[in-house]
Design brief:
single chain; 30% helix; binds shikimate-3-phosphate; 4-stranded mixed beta sheet; 411 residues; alpha/beta; binds phosphoenolpyruvate; UDP-n-acetylglucosamine1-carboxyvinyl-transferase, Chain; EC 2.5.1.19; aromatic amino acid biosynthesis
């Protein structure tokens, strides 16, 4: 397995980074484009693996699709193909076959979809016999994955009589549901969301020109780098929307507590180190689950004890992220704990470690991207399977080099 040696620069340079496009927005726009038979291609489409997997599926003549590790692609395509006459198979990586999908499959079956599990009940791969769907009121849990809800919402205007979704219990990843609805609105779709009920009547999509925003989840690693740097040069992030539709845009405000100032200029979002970090960091990540790894590593490297909450969905992402964080932080000498349900805690416990750590990444792009900046406080760090970053941020390592990091492939 390839391994990368990441060496910290003496100083982070004054750098301009052009951030990748958001895969969440790109994948929604691809589905909405297909539903509206849109002649306008999406501008600034992501070149991530997850978006390529969806773009390939939507333009292929095949009936079997391998979506790899892409959660949104798996879930969005399942709903999309359920309403297209034909026989389809969707499969994915070994990990994808462990990521549950029955909430979505059950909902689609209730409105007339014919879907079978070809291996393990409740998990991909799926065999779908596409047909027209008859809308009704569906009840589904709001605290497992919002991607099931987004997948249903996007096809709702094409379902006979539309769809009413009643979300039961607390809603996790709510900003991603909002993002779906806001992008549907750009295609002329009307909906209502009152309390826990979203109503989308049957209606026509309008074909419109769209552009994907830069990725605020990717921005988090740059906020982290500035927080961990020893000098106060400016890192400027290009491509981000100031008034973004992404919930992860909250990351810039959250990093105030860790000593990073941000300011929008014509060139982009300017980050500078200033002030001292808080003495204890506590936050509920229910709305921004993808930021948890960035904060766990940053806080520990800054010696800021933390309590991260709302992490109940992290166990079913690219890997069990809570366990992965506990295992890999230990290699840097940090002892994290969890209640095994929904949190991660660090009360400052440390143990001696010798030599630079080799971080395993568990097929999870965010493990690689969140641990690499730890080179700034550990001089050097090794990252296993570095190609994993192509899931969302293919140029991540090249961008680190622009900021002055040494990045060298070993083995
Ligand atoms: O809809 C989306 O684009 C996403 C929703 C979130 O997943 P969950 O809804 O499963 O929490 C997030 O973690 C993922 O990276 C992208
Ligand atoms: C959880 C993620 O992706 P997905 O669920 O779409 O595979 C992610 O990118 O952090």
């Amino acid at each position: 397995m390839a391994k990368l040696k990441v060496t910290a620069p003496k100083e982070i340079k004054n750098t301009e980074i052009n951030l990748p496009s958001s895969k969440s927005i790109s994948n929604r726009l691809l589905i909405l484009n297909a539903l509206s038979y849109n002649p306008f291609p999406v501008k600034n489409l992501s070149d991530s693996d997850d978006t390529k997997a969806l773009a390939t599926a939507l333009t292929s003549n095949a009936s079997l699709f391998n979506v790899g590790a892409a959660g949104t692609t798996m879930r969005f395509l399942t709903a999309f193909l359920s309403r297209i006459v034909g026989e389809w198979i969707i499969t994915g990586s070994a990990r994808m076959k462990e990521r549950p999908i029955s909430v979505l499959v059950d909902a689609l079956q209730e409105i007339g979809a014919k879907i079978e599990y070809t291996e393990k009940e409740g998990y991909p791969p799926l065999k779908i016999f596409g047909s027209s769907l008859q809308g009704k009121t569906l009840e589904l849990p709001g605290n497992i994955s919002s991607q099931y809800i987004s997948a249903l919402l996007m096809i709702a205007p094409t379902v006979t009589d539309g769809l009413t979704l009643k979300l039961i219990g607390d809603i996790t990843s709510r900003p991603y549901i909002n993002l779906t609805l806001k992008l549907m609105e750009q295609f002329g779709i009307q909906y209502t969301w009152t309390n826990n009920t979203i109503v989308v009547p049957e209606q026509q999509f309008k074909a419109v020109e769209t552009k994907a925003e830069g990725d605020w989840s990717a921005a988090s690693y740059w906020l982290q780098i500035v927080a961990l740097s020893k000098n106060n040069n400016t890192v400027t992030l290009g491509g981000l929307d100031r008034y973004s539709l992404q919930g992860d845009a909250e990351v810039a405000n959250l990093f105030d507590q860790l000593g990073v100032k941000h300011k929008f200029s014509q060139k982009g979002l300017q980050l500078t180190k200033s002030g001292t970090p808080t003495r204890h960091f506590s936050y509920d990540f229910t709305d921004q689950p993808d930021l948890a790894q960035t904060f766990a590593v940053t806080c520990a490297c800054l010696n800021v004890p933390f309590h991260l909450k709302g992490l109940h969905t992290l166990k079913i992402k690219e890997t069990d992220r809570i366990n992965a964080l506990i295992n890999e932080a230990r290699k840097l000498g940090f002892i994290f704990t969890t209640n095994d349900v929904d949190d991660l805690k660090w009360e400052g416990q440390r143990e001696e470690v010798s030599g630079p750590a080799t971080i395993s990444t568990y097929h999870d792009h965010r493990m690689a991207m969140a641990f690499a900046p730890a080179a700034l406080t550990n001089d050097q760090i090794f990252i296993e399977d570095p190609e994993v970053v192509t899931k969302s941020y293919p140029d991540y390592w090249d961008d680190l080099v622009k900021a002055g990091f040494g990045v060298e492939i070993i083995e």
